[in-house]
TrEMBL record:
Protein's name according to its UniProt entry: DUF1501 domain-containing protein
InterPro entries registered for this protein in UniProt: Alkaline_phosphatase_core_sf, DUF1501, TAT_signal
Protein source organism: Prosthecobacter vanneervenii
Length: 446
């Protein structure tokens, strides 16, 4: 397997060509498509007695697999790093000492240690892991690109809005490739910004501004209807922006007038014990807010936690508040969902765009490394206390039960009851396969 030694400064033309050829040559023939469909059909399906929703915790920047779920205590010090290992609640399984909260609840989730791809930059890696599709052309490391609908947008497209609640939410900001692409603006995420740990937290757009009374808000809507006589072109080919504006306006009115939405966003209704479980900080309280969203029926929620591009001071960061927020919040989320009986109907996933380099650099950091990465899965029939796959003894590459981003995407969609190999159509009628290839990760289906 090829090695990538590049960082945020970009990567070499040779790798651009490799990536381009891979994308160009990766299309499926009819026989391949039938084979993929047959494999998908053979995979065990989750019970559909209750719709499965999803909370995806996005660790933007690419977290280190060494300093989380795949430590290498017997590797040389320049690879092993400064952190030790700790026992988990699963006999024989050890994590990095940086995630003690998750180690205590390891018997409730599964870690996949053997995902790999070949895109070492943030722009391409984000797109690949957030959509299941590689970028068709090389993109810049800092790029925000969309060539294919994101997981959340596809779920919105298939499930739709219910009870005035958005079908796809993201906290506190949109991820790089988390958009709808050709599915249309109505399937972009509803962004709930702000810090839910702050006093008096309110989600913008869910309540009327304090200087506008309910009666005045109603009057403004009536005035808008009376003045707005702009003709709409509803044919999808026209992509009339006025139609998209109407959709957003309608959603906003539905949200403001929805009692379930008003209550779900009011995190102050939670008792102190529950809030403490997640950690009294912005990240932990966003995970709690995500739980409240799926509890009232929002099908897909992304918690976007950035800052994992640790080219320097990795060990100091992993010992401090930054890692603790994720560790405690994630453990609290899984525990809380389980206590409430919601874990079996909620798929919880945590991942970034790639892992980190085996060798520690001169700044006590690790650089980009797509040769191996970890993904945490919980709920929706995922076996508890599992470890799937492995990397080689020094953590360079996935070496056992190797899976691709397409395999991850196929698995995620199947857990949510969505055919991953269906054909979608752009506004001009061009057919697009949702996931090109891929196979379900069978170990994740109990």
């Amino acid at each position: 397997m090829s090695r990538f030694t590049h960082n945020c400064a970009g990567h070499m033309r040779r790798d651009f060509l490799k990536l381009g050829l891979t994308a160009a040559g990766g299309g499926l023939g009819f026989t391949d498509l039938l084979r993929a469909r047959a494999m998908a059909a053979q995979a065990p399906q989750p019970s559909l007695s209750r719709p499965v929703n999803c909370i995806l915790v996005w660790l933007d920047g690419g977290p280190s697999h060494y300093e989380m779920f795949d430590p290498k205590p017997n590797a040389p010090s320049e690879i092993r790093g400064e952190l030790g290992t700790i026992r988990t609640s699963v006999p024989g399984v050890h994590f990095s000492e940086s995630v003690p909260y998750l180690a205590k609840v390891a018997d409730k989730f599964t870690v996949l240690r053997s995902v790999t791809h070949k895109d070492p930059n943030h722009g391409g890696g984000n797109h690949y892991m957030m959509t299941g599709a590689p970028t068709p052309v090389p993109v810049g490391c800092g790029a925000f690109v969309t060539f294919h609908p994101s997981f959340g947008s596809v779920v919105s497209y298939k499930r739709g809005v219910k009870n005035g609640l958005p079908a796809y939410m993201t906290l506190p900001s949109m991820t790089r490739s988390g958009g709808p692409n050709f599915l249309g603006a109505e399937h972009a995420p509803f962004v709930a910004g702000g810090d839910p740990n702050s006093k008096g937290f309110k989600v913008r757009d869910v309540v009327l501004p304090t200087d506008i009374s309910d009666a005045r808000g109603l009057s403004r809507r009536e005035l808008r209807h009376s003045l707005d006589r702009m003709q709409r072109i509803n044919n999808a080919l026209a992509e009339d922006p006025a139609v998209s504006f109407d959709t957003f306006y309608g959603k906003a009115v539905d949200l403001i007038s929805s009692k379930p939405a008003q209550e779900a966003f009011d995190i102050s209704l939670e008792d102190d014990k529950t809030r403490d479980l997640y950690g009294r900080n912005d990240v932990g309280q966003r995970m709690l807010l995500a739980r409240r969203m799926v509890e009232v029926g929002v099908p897909f929620v992304t918690v976007n936690y950035g800052g994992w591009d640790h080219h320097r001071d990795l060990f100091k960061t992993c010992k401090g508040e930054f890692m603790q927020k994720f560790d405690q919040g994630m453990a609290g989320l899984i525990t809380d969902l389980d206590r409430r009986g919601l874990l079996e109907s909620t798929l919880v996933v945590a991942l970034g765009e790639f892992g980190r380099t085996p060798k520690i650099n001169k700044d006590s950091g690790r650089d980009h490394w797509p040769g191996a990465m970890n993904i945490l899965f919980a709920g929706a029939g995922v076996p508890r206390g599992g470890i799937i796959g492995a990397t080689d003894p020094k953590g360079y590459y996935a070496s056992e039960n190797i899976y691709s981003p397409e395999d991850f995407a196929v698995t995620l969609y199947q857990k949510l009851g969505i055919d991953p190999h269906q054909i979608l159509h752009t506004s001009s009628g061009r057919p697009v396969q949702l996931i090109n290839g891929g196979r379900p990760i069978r170990e994740l289906f109990a």
